[in-house]
## 1
Amino acid sequence: MGILRTINQVFNYTNSISKILRYPKIYVSEISDSLYCEWRKVLELNYGKVRTKEMREGTKIHKEFLSFNISDIDEAEIQIQSGRSVSFPAKVGFIHKEKKLMVSGQVDSAFFYQDRVVKILEFKTRKNPKIYESDILQAGIYALSFEEMIGKELDDLEIQIVVGQRVDRGSRKHNGSAYSSKVEINISESYRFKEIKKYVSKKLDYILDFWSGRREPNVAFSKDICNNCHFYRICNRKIL
Ligand code: SF4
């Protein structure tokens, strides 16, 4: 069986087991987002998530930028077997036995070559051309998930974070790949997984203590975070 089918099978199996065990499923994007204010996650659970116009636009840009992905697993496996490098939006997940929950998510793009996962690409859209700690954490948790699913250390795995915006300027190339004509790359950084693995594992462990109810939620650590929060008006823990 090819690597994509194996990963898919492990994901489905893990999903079923977590349902049988009644372990909550926590999404990687939620874990990385809670880095800035865990209390906001509590408010989102109570009042719902706010979806802004910028977020909807970001979803569209995401689709455009990631249109180079192969979405059909059979087609992707055929291409891998014929020796090509393939990018695929794989679902990942593993059970954290100590915290009794499932960490789950879907990578923007994972690159496979010769039955190995060689790169994870995480794409962000934002006006401010900046890579945040949460971006690195998110991609790093995807990498940890692949390690758990494959059962092998992936120290040489490349992690690339790309921040882009939508513009209309004809076709562009970045790092040798042709991307959509309407997406401009503002910033791109790459890391080896082994450079950030310790940090990612430690941070995940700490954040999952909140998600598994082992400690009280932290609040924002800066006034800027609160000023940009949708719950500013109703939150009684904000920094004034
Ligand atoms: S206002 Fe500040 S403390 Fe309150 S939820 Fe938002 S970010 Fe957190």
## 2
Amino acid sequence: MPPKVLLFNPKSCNVKARIPNSILSIAASIDGKYDYIIVDGNLEEDPLNKICSYLSKGDVGYFGSTVMPGPQMQQAIPFSKKIKELYPHVSIIWGGYFASNHSTVILKSGFVDAIVYGPGDKTFPAWLDALENKTPLNNIKNLVFREGDKIIKTPKDELYDQDTLPPLPYDKLNLFYPLYKYLGRTFLGSKTIAYHSSIGCPFTCSFCAVVPIYGARWKAKSAANVYKDIKYLKENYGGSAIEFHDNNFFVSEKRTVEFCKLMLNENIDWWAFGRIDTMDRFKDESLALLRKSGCRMIFFGAETGSDDVLKKMSKGGTQTGEVIKSFAKRMKKFDIIPEYSFVLGLPAETPEKVMEQIDKEISFIYEIKEINPDTEIIIYIYSPVPTEGSEMFDEVLQSGFKFPEKLEDWLNPEWKNFDLHKNPLTPWLTAEMVNKIRNFETVINGYYPTVSDVKLSSFQRKFMHTLSSWRYRNRIFNFPYEIKVLQKYWLRYRQPEIEGFENTV
Ligand code: B12
Ligand code: SF4
């Protein structure tokens, strides 16, 4: 019997957990071949203790953790270090977006043995087999590992046909954590499924973490297979709404339409990420079908109203300020809420230009709200992602910006905030600029409270709206403490961009 594998999903949110698709797809890749245990940091009071209780039995030989930027590192880093200290025979592997984009600093820490960069569906079982059979790792694609003092990165593999991958072992997950705990109430429905139906993205936006990993590639499950899984979760676990977690769900209009047709009688509301220009090319009848099939809201990276900045961001496609506006209007006709995210605080030649650009974005957001007041606005402060060679990243490096040189430095509060796109440590942004962005965000969130927060009563919404109206109308953003206090202590206002939708079980 080969040793067991422990798969860990570090805590990622303070509200209720979602189906841990990263770990689950890795579990699927070894299901039936290796015995595995799942520990979910979102559902454990003391996950390290739980992990150690398994490891102390002596039959676990492998520890795999998924790591996205932000809070997950707060457990992944100290836990992996501790495990290496206490159980040096256990081989440790990380995967996920942070691991993929920062493999060198992670491996240099000495307590992580290997990284899967990109999809792990074939790499992970191949790595286990190689260690079990003592065969070389060099032939395994998508892998980074240490060999003596050297760090070896093997070539990228092709993207796999998603329909040929093994099904996610939902029933097995249910043995470790009852699945109903993952199906929380959101504004979409009482039991919301988190589902991932495609990988990668065909675009190459220079600020996006998907690009260095997937390099403009995208592969999706067929509509029929997605529907089959949704039906399974509906019939066996009562799933009644869906959050699609794909980077870009709507790449294919054909697949979208096929999926919508299958969903017509399911009475399931759903939400997903898309691109404005891609969906603006959808036929009217496809958009109408989307709404009929239950699509309530779509998240779009609007990014900026400036065509020059869109170009600098290599947003690609045909997105322009005008398209962003006209599409907001079009969505209104089909009763689908566009959730537009904007990135403020990009580098520019002079501080005046950085500030000027921030002011322009704020004005653009006002315009969008006038065109379609239902548009949800999400604001990020630009945090660089190392898409080497991109015009924007070169500019970032020239400004003196540097990522931490030691893995544990990512645990410092300022780097945690960097990941959350809240406090970006970027040399070109002054405190005045950051405050302006944050205060504007507070005011607009007060004036237009998000519909995705199911805990807000209509009285609370109205109160917050009225309280914020003089600031919003007169564009006075400084020191909006009265709104902040209300958001924090009274309404416990949440930011969907950081925690996902309000989710209560
Ligand atoms: C769900 C999700 C969340 C949820 C997490 C909920 C949960 N799981 O409990 C919430 C809403 C909390 C969240 C929050 C954030 N997220 Co998030 N999130 C995602 C999302 C949409 C899906 C992740 C997922 O399940 N993928 C499905 C699986 C199957 O894909 P995968 O993770 O890539 O896994 C494959 C490989 O990576 C690899 N792999 C992954 N893990 C492991 C582990 C092992 C051991 C191995 C061997 C392999 C392996 O194999 C898998 C199968 O091939 C991704 C985007 C995306 N489409 O992936 C963003 C994403 C990961 N998030 C991102 C960000 C930035 C954040 C935030 C920091 C938000 C912010 N303010 O911007 C926050 C804070 C993080 C936090 N709180 O921890 C970025 C990361 C960007 C970057 N710079 O690297 C992404 C890529 C979105 C984006 N396009 O920008 N997030
Ligand atoms: S379209 Fe979205 S997911 Fe695709 S590269 Fe651009 S930002 Fe990333």
## 3
Amino acid sequence: MITIKEKKDCCGCSACATICTHHALIMKADKSGFLYPVVNKKKCTNCGLCEKVCPILHENEKRTPTYSYAIKNNDDEIRKKSSSGGLFPIIAEKTIEAGGIVYGASFDKQWNVKHIGITRKEDLHLLQGSKYVQSNTVGIYKDIKQKLQEGINVLFTGTPCQVAGLNCYLQKKYKNLTTIDFICHGVPSPKIWNDYLSEVISLYKLPIANIDFRNKKTGWKDYNFVINFVDSSGVCKKTADMVCQHQDNIYMKLFLDNYILRPSCHSCRFRNGKGGSNYTLGDYWGIQNYNVEFDDDRGISLFLGYDNPNSIPLYIRQHCTSIETPVEFAIKANPSFSKDWPQNRYYQLFFFLHNNFSLNIKNSFSICLNINKIANRLSSLKALNSIRKRG
Ligand SMILES: Cc1cc2nc3c(=O)[nH]c(=O)nc-3n(C[C@H](O)[C@H](O)[C@H](O)COP(=O)(O)OP(=O)(O)OC[C@H]3O[C@@H](n4cnc5c(N)ncnc54)[C@H](O)[C@@H]3O)c2cc1C
Ligand code: SF4
Ligand code: SF4
Ligand code: SF4
């Protein structure tokens, strides 16, 4: 049976809970809001299936992509809604047109992030756009297996660990399954996301109509974090917007400065192509240093493949503008492909203040920032003193 000795040894994919037919294993959130498996020893028969499907216990080999493209969707409206160059919707559309089903991350009614399957093009917008929260995949792998066994084409998109979890759960290759992961910085805590939203709602006193983590109104690189609200009469009309440059938004700072990532993201076993997906997508950061004309600051996707370099699907060429780029350049420009981000030194303090003293997100974060400022000043003073002593 699965035992998690250290938090970093579980990415929360839920393959173990899904395989356990004895209902002895459930996914439960810890104090930080991340899901971990919990075993009911009375029900467990020690069959070992949960260990067999755990992607952390069965790590894949490193893979170097065989090709890399910079790609932008020719439809500007689609590209606007997507976080990068709008490549995902092209591949998803193709799957749906062929009668298939597309799985990806969507918001639910309470703005939690979870995986869903869609079969209609009109619903594609639900999956478009990066949601910087760990998506809940509980139950999804079982659904996918059923569709695959029925012969339905399936496209699964998710983090590299979610793709690895799915492949481990399935235990065999299916010709009708395509998997896409993305270059992954790491996933933030669903609890902190919930608490942050509660604080926003109590400030604006209006229900939320839409959330866009990567609004491109001021550009793809200088993107905004935007929340739209519905008016107080309950009519779904956008009455007030919360628009912040991503560098100025507390939640985005907590994410990008590595205060609230899942512990497994700091020692990720799925970088370097180890997720095992067919394709890897990403933002093509640094494309301006390779081809300045290609970068219109409206979003460029990075497309990495691991198969025959000439096999980039024809429908992508038909709906997108693309240029081939050296794989080494693409990977170097996007460090998350191979590099872990270290946990912020105030990670523990942030969660301690927020969980134990019921301090809101803003105050917990500002205490961490102030302590950091004092620590930096003290270390500058110390350095100055030692220079003086030496002089
Ligand atoms: C948490 C997170 C961290 C990321 N880190 C990096 C990074 O460091 N470097 C980089 O280049 N790119 C990163 N990306 C990927 C990037 O932001 C884009 O999602 C990707 O390039 C696809 O863009 P697109 O325009 O083709 O697709 P879009 O149309 O924007 O579609 C978004 C796709 O991402 C999936 N998705 C969205 N949110 C989640 C989620 N929470 N969990 C699982 N799947 C999700 C959707 O299912 C969909 O397939 C990250 C994405 C996420 C969600
Ligand atoms: S060992 Fe078998 S019964 Fe026990 S938790 Fe794992 S899958 Fe369930
Ligand atoms: S990584 Fe996935 S399969 Fe392994 S213990 Fe965690 S949730 Fe279960
Ligand atoms: S950084 Fe690694 S462990 Fe974390 S979500 Fe991404 S793939 Fe999973």
